[in-house]
Amino acid sequence: MTAFSLDDIRAAAEAKYGSTDIDLGGENIVRLLNPLRLAKAARARLVAIQDELGEDDADQEALLSEALVLVAETPGKGKALLKAVGDDLAVLASLFERYSEGTQAGEASASQS
Q1: Contact residues for 62 (Cβ-Cβ < 8 A; gap 6+)
Q2: Helix H or strand E segment including 37
Q3: With contact defined as beta carbons under 8 Å apart, do 53 and 60 qualify?
Q4: What is the spatial distance between Cα 46 and Cα 70, in angstroms, rounded to a whole number?
Q5: Distance from C-alpha of 45 to C-alpha of 35, rounded to nearest angstrom
Q6: pLDDT per residue as tens, the chain (113 positions)
Q7: Would you put residue 12 in left (φ > 0), alpha (ψ -120 to 50) or beta?
Q8: 60 phi and psi, to 5 degrees?
Q9: N or C end: fewer C-beta atoms under 10 angstroms in the chain?
C-alpha cells in the first residue's frame, strides 16, 4: 500500500493549483489564489463577476478591481495591487486575463460546486 503524508498532498495541490504571483517590486509579492483555494462564497462571487464582465453595460474597472481583491491572498495585498495599477483598465484586464489563464482548470471545477 502506498502512503502519503498530508504534507505530500498539500505540496501536490500547491503544484497543481498554485497561485499567480505578481511582483510589485522589492519583496512585495501579491499572490492571486486559484479559485479552488478560495472559500465557497468567494468562488461563487468570482463566477458571478466573470458572468457580469460579459454584460454590455458592465463597469469593467469596478468588476476587475473587485475580482483581484477577492482572489488576492489578503484584501490588503489586493488593494496594494490596485494602488500600484492605478486607473489603467488595460493593466487590470491584462492582470485578470493572466490570472484566468493560469487557473482554467480551477475555474471549471469551481463552477461545479
Answers
A1: none
A2: none
A3: yes
A4: 8
A5: 10
A6: 889 999 999 999 888 888 999 999 988 999 999 999 999 999 999 999 999 999 999 999 999 999 999 999 999 999 999 999 999 999 999 999 999 887 764 443 333 33
A7: alpha
A8: -55, -45
A9: N
